[in-house]
Amino acid sequence: MEWNVKYQNKMKYQLPKLDYEYDELEPHISKEVLKIHHTKHHQVYVDNSNKILKKLEDARNKNDDLDLKHLLKSLSFNVGGHILHSIFWKTISSNNSEEPKGKLLEKINNDFGSFSRFKEEFSNVANSVEGSGWAALTYCNETDKLILMQIEKHNVNICPGIKILMVLDVWEHAYYLDYKNKRNKFVEAFWKIVNWKKVEKRLND
Ligand SMILES: [Fe+2]
To answer: Fewer Cβ atoms within 10 Å of its own Cβ: the N or the C terminal residue of the chain?
Structure first.
């Protein structure tokens, strides 16, 4: 399954070109719907992501204060929308076979029992999304398993397909016995124990 999306310009997000014409998926998806979905809806997520990144960059250059909580929430939503749509466009095409083949089918049979069981579960995931969201089939590298995910909005309940370079646990269990309610002290201490070589290695891997 092709899930990696190639982007043409690394300086900012861009609307990817489709591999098919807008009318090619008819009657399953009409030309009008596909065109609006791609050129209007998806484009908005691309534009918003770039606007927010610019806002962050400008504020950093001027050393201005930022409403980071609000901005990053919005960035996550819009980038999530862009990435999911980019994968969606690759998920659909005009010349399909009815069933997967080869290794994918082997994995589906192995992890779900059968292709029909997989289809049933995936459909249930899609049908039971409350409000706006997505159904997704994902692959967990750690367990070598296929996992279904139900994504709320564009970014809730999903493990992002973005390589994580470093993390800091700020659950109270991570610091309370040492720092009580002074989480800021814990965060300050963290900077003294970051393994930057490992962080760099993850970036280069
Ligand atoms: Fe959409």
So the answer is: C
Q: Which domains does the chain carry?
A: 7-96 (1.10.287.990), 98-162 (3.55.40.20), 172-204 (no CATH)
Q: Count Cβ atoms below 10 Å from residue 134 Cβ, excluding itself.
A: 21
Ligand 1: centre distance to CA 31 (Å)? 15
Question: Is pLDDT at 160 greater than 80 in this prediction?
Answer: no
Distance from Cα 76 to the centre of ligand 1, integer Å:
15
pTM of the predicted structure, to 2 decimals: 0.81
* Ligand 1: centre distance to CA 193 (Å): 42
Question: What does residue 109 show for φ and ψ, rounded to 5 degrees?
Answer: -60, -40
Q: What is the DSSP letter of 39?
A: I
Residue 12 CA to residue 28 CA, distance in Å, equals 32
Q: To 5 degrees, how large is the angle CA 94–CA 26–CA 93?
A: 20
Cα 34 to ligand 1 centroid, rounded to whole Å: 10
Strands (DSSP E) found in 39-164 = 133-140, 145-152
Residue 179 φ/ψ, nearest 5 degrees: -120, 0
- Categorize the per-residue pLDDT at 51 as very low, low, confident or very high, splitting at 50, 70 and 90: very high
